[in-house]
Every structure is written in structure tokens, then in C-alpha cells.
Predict the structure.
Amino acid sequence: MDIEVIGVSDLRDYAGLENYLESLTFISHVSVESLTGDTGQIPLATRGGGDSLQRAAIVEWALQPVAAGEAGIQRFQLRH
């Protein structure tokens, strides 16, 4: 599944986001496909799909779900 994360403003944000996503047990692979401005496009290999990510994002407060992007891609705001 692909997600977009907005609010990635520097290398520290990028590294923190990647570490956070890799720490989630239901995600088996993370790679940032592109960074445009403050938005990262990230393909993920997951078990449990988008619902698991939504629940984890809300529980952990690292990411806040926002309105879907183009083509219905799930979007999240990186919380600082």
C-alpha cells in the first residue's frame, strides 16, 4: 500500500518517520519513494492493510490521519 506523509521538513523528520514505521510490527518493509516539498510518498508492505496503520497512527500519536490524497492515497500529518 502507498501512503503520503506531510510535514517531513528535514533529515531528522525523515529518519524519525522511517524508524517509527519500521518499528510497527505489521509493517514488513518501508521505503521512501519520493520527497516533494514537505511530503513523502512511501510504499509500505503491510499485514492488515490501511486499517492497522490508521489505528497505530492514532494510538501512537506520531502520525495524524488527514484527508486522502490523489487517487485515494491515505495521507498522514507528521506530528512534531
User: Anything to note?
Assistant: The first helix runs from residue 11 to 23.
